[in-house]
Design goal:
The complex is a heterodimer of chains A (227) and B (211). Chain A is α+β, with helices and mostly antiparallel strands. In chain A, 17% of the residues lie in helices and 41% in strands. Chain A has a 13-stranded antiparallel β-sheet with strand order 1-7-8-9-10-11-12-13-2-3-4-5-6. Chain B contains 4 helices and 11 strands, in the order ααββββββαββαβββ. Chain B has helices at 4-25, 32-39, 111-127, 156-159, and strands spanning 44-54, 62-71, 75-82, 86-91, 94-101, 104-107, 137-142, 148-153, 164-169, 177-185, 188-199. In chain B, a hairpin with a 2-residue loop joins β4 and β5 (94-101). Classes of the chains: A alpha+beta (227), B alpha+beta (211).
Amino acid sequence: MPAGIKAHVRWCSVISALLLCACASPQRPLPVNPSGTEHRERCRLPFPVAPARFINAIEAQLPDGKKMTLIGITVIDPGERAVRAAIMTIEGLLLFDASTRNDVITLYRALPPFDGPEFRSALLHDVQFLFLPPAGEPQQYGIVNNGSSICRYGLADGMTIDVIVHPDNSWELREYKNGSGSTRTAKGAAAAGGLSGTVVLQGLQPQPYRLQLCPITAETAKPGDAR
Amino acid sequence: MRPQGIHIMHHARFIAVLFCAGFLCAGWTDSWESIRKESAKVSSISARFTQTKRMKILASPLVSHGTFCFKAPDSVRWAYDAPVKSVLLLHQGTSRRFTQGHSGWTEDAGIGAAATSVMLQEILLWSTGRFTESQGFTAELLAGTAPRIHLRPRDSSLGKIISGIEIIPAPDRPGMIQSIIISEGAGNTTTLDFSDVKINVPLEDGLFRKP
Protein backbone atom coordinates (compact mmCIF):
# COMPACT_ATOMS: atom_id res chain seq x y z
CA MET A 1 0.00 0.00 0.00
CA PRO A 2 1.43 3.41 -0.92
CA ALA A 3 2.61 5.51 1.99
CA GLY A 4 0.07 8.24 1.29
CA ILE A 5 -2.85 5.82 1.33
CA LYS A 6 -1.55 4.30 4.53
CA ALA A 7 -1.42 7.73 6.04
CA HIS A 8 -5.02 8.39 5.07
CA VAL A 9 -6.21 5.07 6.43
CA ARG A 10 -4.49 5.75 9.73
CA TRP A 11 -5.96 9.23 9.81
CA CYS A 12 -9.46 7.97 9.19
CA SER A 13 -8.95 5.33 11.85
CA VAL A 14 -8.15 8.01 14.35
CA ILE A 15 -11.35 9.86 13.55
CA SER A 16 -13.35 6.66 13.78
CA ALA A 17 -11.73 5.86 17.08
CA LEU A 18 -12.57 9.32 18.28
CA LEU A 19 -16.22 8.66 17.62
CA LEU A 20 -16.09 5.31 19.36
CA CYS A 21 -14.38 6.23 22.59
CA ALA A 22 -16.20 5.33 25.74
CA CYS A 23 -15.70 8.05 28.29
CA ALA A 24 -18.75 8.25 30.57
CA SER A 25 -21.98 6.58 31.53
CA PRO A 26 -25.41 8.05 30.86
CA GLN A 27 -26.83 10.10 33.72
CA ARG A 28 -30.43 10.13 34.92
CA PRO A 29 -32.37 13.42 35.11
CA LEU A 30 -32.07 15.22 38.44
CA PRO A 31 -35.24 16.09 40.37
CA VAL A 32 -36.10 19.79 40.08
CA ASN A 33 -37.25 21.57 43.24
CA PRO A 34 -39.23 24.59 42.00
CA SER A 35 -37.88 27.87 43.28
CA GLY A 36 -37.61 31.59 42.46
CA THR A 37 -37.10 33.21 39.07
CA GLU A 38 -33.54 34.15 40.02
CA HIS A 39 -32.62 30.56 39.25
CA ARG A 40 -34.10 30.87 35.79
CA GLU A 41 -31.94 33.93 35.25
CA ARG A 42 -28.81 32.13 36.44
CA CYS A 43 -29.40 29.47 33.78
CA ARG A 44 -28.44 32.08 31.16
CA LEU A 45 -24.96 32.37 32.63
CA PRO A 46 -23.20 29.75 30.44
CA PHE A 47 -24.34 31.37 27.19
CA PRO A 48 -23.22 34.57 25.42
CA VAL A 49 -26.01 37.11 25.05
CA ALA A 50 -24.51 38.91 22.03
CA PRO A 51 -22.66 37.84 18.85
CA ALA A 52 -19.29 36.41 19.84
CA ARG A 53 -16.28 34.65 18.35
CA PHE A 54 -14.35 31.95 20.19
CA ILE A 55 -11.08 30.25 19.30
CA ASN A 56 -10.35 27.08 21.23
CA ALA A 57 -7.79 24.34 21.32
CA ILE A 58 -9.82 21.15 21.00
CA GLU A 59 -8.31 18.13 22.68
CA ALA A 60 -10.00 14.91 21.64
CA GLN A 61 -9.41 11.84 23.77
CA LEU A 62 -9.31 8.44 22.12
CA PRO A 63 -10.47 5.16 23.67
CA ASP A 64 -6.96 4.02 24.46
CA GLY A 65 -6.09 7.27 26.17
CA LYS A 66 -4.27 8.81 23.22
CA LYS A 67 -5.16 12.32 22.18
CA MET A 68 -5.27 14.58 19.16
CA THR A 69 -5.46 18.35 19.18
CA LEU A 70 -7.09 20.71 16.69
CA ILE A 71 -8.07 24.37 16.69
CA GLY A 72 -11.74 25.32 16.58
CA ILE A 73 -13.20 28.68 15.61
CA THR A 74 -16.82 29.36 16.51
CA VAL A 75 -18.95 32.41 15.79
CA ILE A 76 -22.40 32.57 17.33
CA ASP A 77 -25.28 34.97 17.02
CA PRO A 78 -27.76 34.23 19.81
CA GLY A 79 -30.40 36.60 18.41
CA GLU A 80 -30.55 34.77 15.10
CA ARG A 81 -29.68 31.40 16.65
CA ALA A 82 -26.96 31.22 14.02
CA VAL A 83 -23.65 29.41 14.33
CA ARG A 84 -20.56 29.19 12.14
CA ALA A 85 -17.87 26.68 13.04
CA ALA A 86 -14.46 25.89 11.57
CA ILE A 87 -11.81 23.32 12.45
CA MET A 88 -8.17 23.59 11.45
CA THR A 89 -4.97 21.80 12.26
CA ILE A 90 -2.35 23.50 14.40
CA GLU A 91 -0.33 23.82 11.20
CA GLY A 92 -3.12 25.87 9.63
CA LEU A 93 -4.92 23.51 7.28
CA LEU A 94 -8.63 24.34 7.27
CA LEU A 95 -10.47 21.03 7.56
CA PHE A 96 -14.05 22.11 8.04
CA ASP A 97 -16.09 25.31 7.78
CA ALA A 98 -19.89 25.43 7.94
CA SER A 99 -22.73 27.45 9.36
CA THR A 100 -26.27 26.76 10.42
CA ARG A 101 -29.27 29.02 10.88
CA ASN A 102 -32.88 27.97 11.24
CA ASP A 103 -31.77 24.36 10.82
CA VAL A 104 -30.31 25.10 7.38
CA ILE A 105 -26.67 24.08 7.04
CA THR A 106 -24.33 25.90 4.66
CA LEU A 107 -21.09 24.08 3.97
CA TYR A 108 -18.10 26.17 2.94
CA ARG A 109 -15.35 23.57 3.13
CA ALA A 110 -15.01 20.01 4.32
CA LEU A 111 -12.00 17.78 3.78
CA PRO A 112 -12.21 14.06 4.38
CA PRO A 113 -13.04 12.57 6.77
CA PHE A 114 -14.91 15.71 7.83
CA ASP A 115 -17.00 15.80 4.66
CA GLY A 116 -19.84 13.43 5.57
CA PRO A 117 -23.30 14.89 6.16
CA GLU A 118 -23.60 13.11 9.51
CA PHE A 119 -20.37 14.59 10.74
CA ARG A 120 -21.25 18.14 9.80
CA SER A 121 -24.69 17.84 11.38
CA ALA A 122 -23.27 16.35 14.59
CA LEU A 123 -20.52 18.95 14.83
CA LEU A 124 -22.89 21.85 14.41
CA HIS A 125 -25.26 20.24 16.90
CA ASP A 126 -22.41 20.12 19.42
CA VAL A 127 -21.61 23.77 18.83
CA GLN A 128 -25.23 24.81 19.23
CA PHE A 129 -25.49 22.70 22.39
CA LEU A 130 -22.47 24.43 23.91
CA PHE A 131 -22.92 28.02 22.83
CA LEU A 132 -26.65 28.68 22.39
CA PRO A 133 -29.25 28.40 25.15
CA PRO A 134 -32.03 25.93 24.42
CA ALA A 135 -34.84 27.52 22.42
CA GLY A 136 -37.84 28.85 24.29
CA GLU A 137 -38.50 29.14 27.98
CA PRO A 138 -37.75 26.39 30.49
CA GLN A 139 -40.60 24.05 31.34
CA GLN A 140 -39.28 23.82 34.89
CA TYR A 141 -36.74 25.75 36.91
CA GLY A 142 -35.52 25.80 40.47
CA ILE A 143 -32.75 24.11 42.41
CA VAL A 144 -31.31 20.65 42.81
CA ASN A 145 -30.39 19.14 46.13
CA ASN A 146 -26.87 20.57 46.19
CA GLY A 147 -28.24 24.09 45.80
CA SER A 148 -27.37 24.55 42.15
CA SER A 149 -29.80 26.31 39.85
CA ILE A 150 -31.44 24.17 37.19
CA CYS A 151 -33.65 24.85 34.17
CA ARG A 152 -35.27 22.08 32.19
CA TYR A 153 -36.13 22.69 28.54
CA GLY A 154 -38.29 20.40 26.45
CA LEU A 155 -37.38 20.45 22.79
CA ALA A 156 -39.62 19.86 19.81
CA ASP A 157 -37.76 16.71 18.82
CA GLY A 158 -38.53 14.99 22.12
CA MET A 159 -35.16 15.80 23.64
CA THR A 160 -34.77 17.46 27.01
CA ILE A 161 -31.91 19.75 28.04
CA ASP A 162 -31.04 20.61 31.62
CA VAL A 163 -28.95 23.70 32.28
CA ILE A 164 -27.35 23.53 35.71
CA VAL A 165 -25.39 26.42 37.21
CA HIS A 166 -23.51 25.73 40.42
CA PRO A 167 -22.99 28.25 43.23
CA ASP A 168 -19.39 28.88 42.05
CA ASN A 169 -20.75 29.70 38.54
CA SER A 170 -19.35 26.56 36.96
CA TRP A 171 -22.05 24.86 34.92
CA GLU A 172 -23.34 21.69 33.31
CA LEU A 173 -25.53 20.88 30.35
CA ARG A 174 -27.29 17.55 30.10
CA GLU A 175 -29.27 16.35 27.13
CA TYR A 176 -31.70 13.47 27.52
CA LYS A 177 -33.77 11.51 25.08
CA ASN A 178 -37.36 10.86 26.14
CA GLY A 179 -36.49 11.20 29.81
CA SER A 180 -34.00 8.34 29.78
CA GLY A 181 -30.25 8.51 30.34
CA SER A 182 -28.23 11.45 29.09
CA THR A 183 -27.13 11.44 25.46
CA ARG A 184 -24.77 14.38 25.67
CA THR A 185 -23.26 16.35 28.55
CA ALA A 186 -20.99 19.34 28.97
CA LYS A 187 -19.21 20.83 31.94
CA GLY A 188 -17.72 24.30 31.98
CA ALA A 189 -15.60 26.25 34.39
CA ALA A 190 -16.68 29.72 35.41
CA ALA A 191 -15.60 32.52 33.09
CA ALA A 192 -12.38 34.26 34.06
CA GLY A 193 -10.42 37.15 32.62
CA GLY A 194 -12.82 37.72 29.76
CA LEU A 195 -12.52 34.13 28.59
CA SER A 196 -14.98 31.37 29.24
CA GLY A 197 -13.29 28.52 31.06
CA THR A 198 -12.36 25.08 29.87
CA VAL A 199 -15.32 23.07 28.61
CA VAL A 200 -15.56 19.30 28.43
CA LEU A 201 -18.16 17.84 26.09
CA GLN A 202 -19.09 14.18 26.21
CA GLY A 203 -21.33 12.64 23.63
CA LEU A 204 -22.73 9.32 24.78
CA GLN A 205 -25.08 8.23 22.00
CA PRO A 206 -25.09 6.80 19.46
CA GLN A 207 -21.32 6.50 19.92
CA PRO A 208 -19.33 7.99 22.80
CA TYR A 209 -16.66 10.66 22.38
CA ARG A 210 -15.00 13.35 24.50
CA LEU A 211 -13.80 16.80 23.53
CA GLN A 212 -12.06 19.30 25.78
CA LEU A 213 -12.16 22.92 24.66
CA CYS A 214 -9.47 25.19 26.04
CA PRO A 215 -10.00 28.89 25.29
CA ILE A 216 -7.44 30.76 23.21
CA THR A 217 -9.40 33.93 22.51
CA ALA A 218 -12.94 35.24 22.90
CA GLU A 219 -14.17 38.45 21.36
CA THR A 220 -17.29 40.31 20.36
CA ALA A 221 -18.51 39.57 16.85
CA LYS A 222 -20.65 41.61 14.50
CA PRO A 223 -24.19 40.65 13.58
CA GLY A 224 -23.97 38.54 10.44
CA ASP A 225 -20.51 37.13 11.18
CA ALA A 226 -22.05 33.77 11.98
CA ARG A 227 -23.49 33.42 8.47
CA MET B 1 -9.85 4.00 -1.82
CA ARG B 2 -11.36 7.40 -2.50
CA PRO B 3 -9.13 10.14 -3.83
CA GLN B 4 -9.47 12.06 -0.56
CA GLY B 5 -6.66 9.99 0.86
CA ILE B 6 -4.40 11.50 -1.69
CA HIS B 7 -5.53 14.94 -0.51
CA ILE B 8 -4.30 14.36 2.99
CA MET B 9 -1.07 12.90 1.75
CA HIS B 10 -0.49 15.87 -0.49
CA HIS B 11 -1.18 18.32 2.30
CA ALA B 12 1.42 16.68 4.45
CA ARG B 13 3.87 16.72 1.61
CA PHE B 14 3.01 20.26 0.85
CA ILE B 15 3.77 21.51 4.35
CA ALA B 16 7.11 19.77 4.27
CA VAL B 17 7.85 21.18 0.87
CA LEU B 18 7.17 24.68 2.03
CA PHE B 19 9.66 24.66 4.82
CA CYS B 20 12.43 23.10 2.86
CA ALA B 21 11.73 24.95 -0.33
CA GLY B 22 11.76 28.22 1.47
CA PHE B 23 15.11 27.73 3.06
CA LEU B 24 16.81 26.14 0.15
CA CYS B 25 16.04 28.35 -2.77
CA ALA B 26 15.96 31.89 -1.50
CA GLY B 27 18.59 34.31 -2.71
CA TRP B 28 20.01 32.16 -5.46
CA THR B 29 17.01 31.40 -7.54
CA ASP B 30 18.39 31.95 -11.03
CA SER B 31 17.83 28.34 -12.04
CA TRP B 32 16.80 24.98 -10.67
CA GLU B 33 20.34 23.81 -11.21
CA SER B 34 21.75 26.52 -8.95
CA ILE B 35 19.17 25.63 -6.31
CA ARG B 36 20.13 21.98 -6.42
CA LYS B 37 23.79 22.84 -6.24
CA GLU B 38 23.44 25.19 -3.29
CA SER B 39 21.02 22.98 -1.38
CA ALA B 40 23.63 20.27 -1.23
CA LYS B 41 25.69 22.57 0.99
CA VAL B 42 23.00 22.82 3.68
CA SER B 43 23.57 20.45 6.58
CA SER B 44 21.29 22.13 9.14
CA ILE B 45 18.75 24.93 9.53
CA SER B 46 17.40 26.67 12.62
CA ALA B 47 14.82 29.45 12.36
CA ARG B 48 11.92 31.12 14.12
CA PHE B 49 8.64 31.27 12.24
CA THR B 50 5.41 33.22 12.52
CA GLN B 51 2.32 31.62 11.04
CA THR B 52 -0.53 33.98 10.16
CA LYS B 53 -3.84 32.37 9.32
CA ARG B 54 -6.45 34.46 7.52
CA MET B 55 -9.98 33.20 7.05
CA LYS B 56 -13.38 34.76 6.50
CA ILE B 57 -14.57 33.41 9.82
CA LEU B 58 -11.82 35.34 11.60
CA ALA B 59 -12.11 39.08 12.21
CA SER B 60 -8.35 39.31 12.62
CA PRO B 61 -5.65 36.78 11.71
CA LEU B 62 -4.78 33.93 14.03
CA VAL B 63 -1.06 34.17 14.68
CA SER B 64 1.11 31.26 15.80
CA HIS B 65 4.82 31.22 16.62
CA GLY B 66 7.44 28.55 16.74
CA THR B 67 10.80 27.16 15.76
CA PHE B 68 11.83 25.07 12.78
CA CYS B 69 14.97 22.92 12.77
CA PHE B 70 16.35 20.65 10.07
CA LYS B 71 19.41 18.46 10.26
CA ALA B 72 20.64 16.39 7.36
CA PRO B 73 19.99 13.75 6.38
CA ASP B 74 16.56 13.10 7.87
CA SER B 75 15.78 15.02 11.07
CA VAL B 76 13.15 17.74 11.44
CA ARG B 77 11.70 19.54 14.45
CA TRP B 78 8.69 21.74 13.84
CA ALA B 79 7.65 23.24 17.16
CA TYR B 80 4.83 25.67 17.98
CA ASP B 81 5.18 27.80 21.10
CA ALA B 82 1.76 29.49 20.86
CA PRO B 83 -1.18 29.46 20.89
CA VAL B 84 -0.99 25.66 21.25
CA LYS B 85 2.30 24.07 22.22
CA SER B 86 2.96 21.32 19.74
CA VAL B 87 6.05 19.56 18.43
CA LEU B 88 6.38 17.54 15.27
CA LEU B 89 9.49 15.35 15.17
CA LEU B 90 11.03 13.35 12.36
CA HIS B 91 14.16 11.41 13.16
CA GLN B 92 15.78 8.40 11.56
CA GLY B 93 12.64 7.50 9.69
CA THR B 94 10.31 7.76 12.69
CA SER B 95 7.74 10.55 12.98
CA ARG B 96 6.01 11.62 16.20
CA ARG B 97 3.84 14.49 17.25
CA PHE B 98 3.34 15.82 20.76
CA THR B 99 0.95 18.42 22.12
CA GLN B 100 1.06 20.04 25.52
CA GLY B 101 -2.30 19.88 27.26
CA HIS B 102 -3.60 19.98 30.79
CA SER B 103 -1.76 16.78 31.65
CA GLY B 104 1.55 17.80 30.11
CA TRP B 105 3.07 16.59 26.85
CA THR B 106 1.11 13.81 25.23
CA GLU B 107 1.78 12.02 22.00
CA ASP B 108 -0.79 12.87 19.38
CA ALA B 109 -2.29 9.84 17.77
CA GLY B 110 -4.00 11.85 15.09
CA ILE B 111 -3.21 13.85 12.07
CA GLY B 112 0.40 14.53 12.85
CA ALA B 113 1.36 10.94 13.34
CA ALA B 114 -0.02 9.94 9.99
CA ALA B 115 1.15 12.92 8.06
CA THR B 116 4.70 13.16 9.24
CA SER B 117 5.82 9.92 7.66
CA VAL B 118 4.77 11.36 4.33
CA MET B 119 6.30 14.70 5.15
CA LEU B 120 9.66 13.09 5.69
CA GLN B 121 9.73 11.75 2.17
CA GLU B 122 9.02 15.17 0.74
CA ILE B 123 11.51 16.88 3.01
CA LEU B 124 14.24 14.60 1.77
CA LEU B 125 13.25 15.30 -1.81
CA TRP B 126 13.35 19.02 -1.37
CA SER B 127 16.44 18.97 0.79
CA THR B 128 18.30 17.98 -2.32
CA GLY B 129 16.76 20.80 -4.32
CA ARG B 130 14.60 18.59 -6.52
CA PHE B 131 11.56 20.86 -6.55
CA THR B 132 10.48 19.74 -9.99
CA GLU B 133 10.26 16.12 -8.92
CA SER B 134 7.37 16.63 -6.51
CA GLN B 135 4.45 14.37 -7.31
CA GLY B 136 1.97 16.80 -5.79
CA PHE B 137 2.96 20.17 -7.22
CA THR B 138 4.42 21.70 -10.32
CA ALA B 139 7.05 24.33 -9.60
CA GLU B 140 7.59 27.49 -11.57
CA LEU B 141 10.69 29.55 -10.91
CA LEU B 142 10.24 33.26 -11.51
CA ALA B 143 13.69 34.82 -11.50
CA GLY B 144 14.40 38.54 -11.65
CA THR B 145 14.54 41.42 -9.23
CA ALA B 146 11.79 39.92 -7.08
CA PRO B 147 12.39 36.20 -7.43
CA ARG B 148 9.76 33.77 -6.27
CA ILE B 149 8.57 30.24 -6.79
CA HIS B 150 5.01 29.34 -7.60
CA LEU B 151 3.79 25.87 -6.72
CA ARG B 152 0.56 24.63 -8.20
CA PRO B 153 -1.24 21.35 -7.58
CA ARG B 154 -0.85 18.83 -10.33
CA ASP B 155 -4.44 17.59 -10.12
CA SER B 156 -7.80 19.17 -9.37
CA SER B 157 -8.47 17.03 -6.32
CA LEU B 158 -5.41 18.43 -4.59
CA GLY B 159 -6.36 21.87 -5.87
CA LYS B 160 -9.52 21.74 -3.78
CA ILE B 161 -7.31 21.68 -0.70
CA ILE B 162 -4.41 23.89 -1.74
CA SER B 163 -4.98 26.19 -4.67
CA GLY B 164 -1.43 27.51 -4.79
CA ILE B 165 1.77 28.37 -2.95
CA GLU B 166 4.05 31.33 -3.31
CA ILE B 167 7.57 31.30 -1.92
CA ILE B 168 9.30 34.66 -1.58
CA PRO B 169 13.05 34.66 -0.97
CA ALA B 170 14.54 37.39 1.17
CA PRO B 171 15.88 39.95 -1.32
CA ASP B 172 18.77 41.10 0.83
CA ARG B 173 19.79 37.83 2.46
CA PRO B 174 21.07 35.23 -0.01
CA GLY B 175 20.04 31.74 0.99
CA MET B 176 17.20 32.92 3.20
CA ILE B 177 13.43 32.93 2.73
CA GLN B 178 11.22 35.85 3.56
CA SER B 179 7.71 34.41 3.34
CA ILE B 180 5.63 31.51 2.16
CA ILE B 181 1.99 32.06 1.31
CA ILE B 182 -0.33 29.08 1.13
CA SER B 183 -3.69 29.63 -0.53
CA GLU B 184 -6.58 27.31 0.18
CA GLY B 185 -9.15 29.16 -1.91
CA ALA B 186 -12.09 31.33 -0.83
CA GLY B 187 -9.69 33.87 0.64
CA ASN B 188 -8.21 31.45 3.17
CA THR B 189 -4.44 31.79 3.39
CA THR B 190 -1.60 30.77 5.66
CA THR B 191 1.51 32.94 5.63
CA LEU B 192 4.77 31.76 7.12
CA ASP B 193 7.39 34.40 7.87
CA PHE B 194 10.86 33.29 8.90
CA SER B 195 13.38 35.09 11.05
CA ASP B 196 16.59 34.41 12.96
CA VAL B 197 17.58 31.90 10.31
CA LYS B 198 20.81 30.05 10.98
CA ILE B 199 22.31 27.63 8.47
CA ASN B 200 24.87 24.91 9.16
CA VAL B 201 24.91 25.38 12.92
CA PRO B 202 25.40 22.36 15.19
CA LEU B 203 22.07 20.83 16.26
CA GLU B 204 21.96 18.09 18.88
CA ASP B 205 20.17 14.87 17.94
CA GLY B 206 18.16 15.14 21.15
CA LEU B 207 16.24 18.03 19.65
CA PHE B 208 14.61 15.61 17.25
CA ARG B 209 13.71 12.89 19.74
CA LYS B 210 11.32 14.50 22.23
CA PRO B 211 9.72 17.86 23.13
